[in-house]
Amino acid sequence: MEAFLSNIDRVVDGFSWTVRLTLVSALLSFVLGILLTAMRASPVPLLRGLATSYVEGVRNTPLTLVLLFCGLGLNSALGLSMADSVAMDVFWWAVIGLSAYTACFVSESLRAGINTIPLGQVEAARSLGLTFTQNLRLIVIPQALRTVVGPLGSVLIALTKNTTVASVAGLGVQEASREMKLMFDQGIAPVLPTFVGFAIGFLILTLPTGYFFGWLSKRVAVVR
Amino acid sequence: MSVQTAVLFDVPGPRARVRNVVYTVATLILFAAGLAVLYLGFNRTLTERETSLFDPATWAVNPAGQWAADKWEPFLRPETWTSYVLPGLQNTLTAALTASVLAIVFGLLFGIGRLSERWWIRVPAGAVVEFFRGIPLLMLIFFTMALPIVAWQLFDIPTGTFQVTALAAVVTGLTLYNGSVLAEVFRAGILAVPKGQSEAAQAIGMTRTQNLWLILIPQAVTSMMPAIVAQLVVLLKDSALGYIIAFPELLRSFTLLATRESNVIPAAIICALIYIAINLTLSRVAIWLERRNSRRGRPSAKPTDAEGAPTKADTATGAAGAVAVEPTVQEPLPDTLTEEGRAEPGDGDTDGNGTDGDGSPAGRG
Which run of H or of E encompasses A15? Predict the structure, then answer.
């Protein structure tokens, strides 16, 4: 365990990338997810179709492939770079891949949330003369958000764990799991304590998130 | 979706129709622009293109670019399929099927374990499930790969004694993670069986074990079937993580092919299409099962509403009826893959059932 603890700065460094990936992707995927949900509920058939095929397509593609596409396809083949330093470049490509993937799950949760809103709410809003956008912004989304706090928490936890896939070839973000693998391979610390240490790190990130969202979803639940 | 969202807006009048047309055109333009960027980007890299957009030469297919016919031609050759794609697909399916069976066994054991009356079974089972659900699958796979080193470091077993194959590591990881998620699914399903069922079982003198295996589990499995299938989709998708540890599964064989033929984009597109086809078929099975359950007046319990006991369900069927349910449920599964799965054109209504790996942890509270 001492050998592991003496390398604690590498562990902290790995988790700092994990946290950064999680936070930025969470924000981006939330925005994108709301946009997708609005498109899927819109009166324009083309918007609905596009959003639905995007969600159904990306949701059923493995995240490894999505990130590989960002790394090898968009980054290398397209020759687009997001930042000057390599570390930041791959970081942003990983964020884009993770957000594009996670947005589908955000959108699915939100849509499930919209489906739980009683018809009367929407009918009342419409009879008051609210437009589609007003209806969505003032009536539907606020209520839907409250019911999906729990599922969104699950999506956030899944995202936290999914950031480990950003260590995939072509990207190779120095996040926690990659750091762990490197520590295994370089033999600087025994494997078992290293694994347990990193596992505890992830549990510290995921368990409180789960409990917090569980508590929050009870607190903001719409009483019906 | 159709019922609920249709109420968000009226049947369009003249002005709304015009507006819809405007939005449609705007969307089309944006979409076409996006496609054009992708097309041009993969035709030539952005850095080497200096010609103007109005020059027809810019739009011509670049023979060295990703859209050139000879980049797609490998997929018309049979040996591409026999020596790359099909072996990869076989490995993916082997890993996914093995892990599915093991994960269901693991899930049943630990799901039941968490409901045990004895604390020394309940508490460890809960700890195991929470642990494996809370850490990333990739870490589990890495750790399994490193087990020979662990054996050497802890027990002085020389590192050559045993090897962990990539397949074993992938299957172990998938089993532990998805098994833990399934354990929660089974637990929620058992808790959602109406109380009267257990009481009736006790009243006719069944033991706890009989009650569990003859009354609770068959009903729980039936009502949780959609959630179980959704989790198996996640499992199949996650098997692509084997790519990272060089397990020769579908994604790995496509990257090998892409390196050989230098056709990253065509390979990625076709690989994605194969995954999407398999997963959509499986998802359709989950939707079909859910509809089937609701047709029979047996609501599919979701992991999240473990406490909310299903409505009336079939309290009258009693013990014999509950057991008899199982074979009829199992039997129609195979032909759904071929007929029902495709018979339903995608209305995209998945009820948010198949969230990511962790659709279920919401039930942890």
Answer: helix A8-40
d(C-alpha B55, C-alpha B58), whole Å: 6
**For B365, which of A57, A111, A214 is closest by C-beta distance?**
A214
**pLDDT over threshold 60, residue A126:** yes
pLDDT tens profile B325-364: 333 333 333 333 333 333 333 333 333 333 344 433 333 3
Backbone dihedral region for residue A130 (phi beyond 0: left; psi -120 to 50: alpha; all else: beta): beta
Task: Give the mean model confidence (pLDDT) for residues B243-271.
Answer: 88
CB proximity B4 to A under 8 Å: yes
User: What are the CA-CA distances from residue B330 to residues A185, B188, B222, B259 (Å)?
Assistant: 46, 21, 9, 43
Please tell me the distance from the alpha carbon of residue B261 to that of residue B244, in angstroms, as a whole number.
21
CB atoms within 10 A of CB B337: 13
Question: Considering only CB atoms, which chain B residues are within 8 Å of A130?
Answer: none
Task: State pTM to two decimals.
Answer: 0.82
Closest to B258 (Cα-Cα) out of B77, B81, B74, B91? B74
Residues B358/B181, Cβ–Cβ less than 8 Å: yes
Q: Which amino acid is at B122?
A: R
Compute CA distances A182 → A191, B146, B284, whole Å.
11, 12, 41
